[in-house]
Design a protein that fits this description.
By secondary structure, the protein is mainly alpha-helical. The chain is about 60% helix and about 0% strand.
């Protein structure tokens, strides 16, 4: 049975990246995140910046446990104190507003790569309705021309553990054996994510540079107009 994840996995992972010598794999395993998410944090490529959360202060880890992991890259961190969470009523999975526009892409990816997963499982994983899933499957969705299949893990709609769990459960029920192509798909998604993150960073740098140039030009023009007005007086 897998251990629970920290109360704030992304913030905890960010702190571990900045303050320890643990490997990306150790951090992703402990926090329940995709290893690419952790790598993006380390490379400062993540689109969202997280304020680090010290797992020792919350009691989820001890310094002794961290040192064990730093001394042995193969060591799996063990949670010292399980975080206390409040139970929510049964209902659709909550997805932040900023992520909701990505849901159709994540659904399309699952339908394409894991057709054995049921609509009920997809709905629970992504937090969507069966009508939406059906519309994407039969291509009657109102925005179908703009839907591009993307890994829901890289989109931040679910964790790798959650996706692996439903895929394994659906495959077992359908009697499907591993075809050995999962690693290939993961590699493709990994390269696509890194490329997308780099593109976002380059676009942000260009936008900042253009804004600085515009501000400089505006300041120069204002100074010139002021000088001309002073000369006329």
């Amino acid at each position: 049975m897998s251990q629970p994840t920290p109360l704030m996995p992304h913030a905890t992972a960010s702190w571990l990246v900045d303050n320890t010598a643990l490997t990306f794999e150790q951090i992703s395993e402990f926090c329940g995140l995709h290893i690419l998410e952790v790598q993006a944090m380390a490379d400062d490529l993540a689109s969202s910046k997280y304020t680090g959360r010290d797992p020792m202060r919350s009691g989820e880890l001890t310094m002794e446990e961290i040192e064990k992991g730093q001394n042995d890259p193969n060591y799996k961190l063990r949670m010292f104190k399980v975080p206390v969470t409040t139970n929510r009523t049964k209902g659709p999975r909550y997805t932040p507003v900023s992520k909701r526009q990505d849901k159709p892409d994540g659904i399309a990816w699952i339908l394409r790569n894991h057709p054995e997963v049921s609509d009920a499982q997809i709905g629970k994983l992504i937090g969507t309705t069966r009508n939406t899933i059906a519309a994407i499957r039969d291509r009657s969705h109102w925005n179908i021309s703009n839907i591009t299949p993307k890994d829901p893990v890289t989109l931040g709609l679910c964790s790798q553990r959650e996706l692996d769990a439903i895929v394994a459960k659906a495959a077992k029920k359908a009697g499907i054996e591993d075809d050995g192509l999962s690693d290939v798909r993961l590699t493709d998604d990994r390269e696509a994510l890194i490329t997308e993150l780099r593109a976002e960073r380059e676009a942000a740098v260009r936008a900042a540079s253009e804004a600085a140039q515009e501000a400089e030009a505006a300041a120069w023009l204002e100074a010139k107009r002021a000088a001309e007005a002073e000369e006329r007086q």
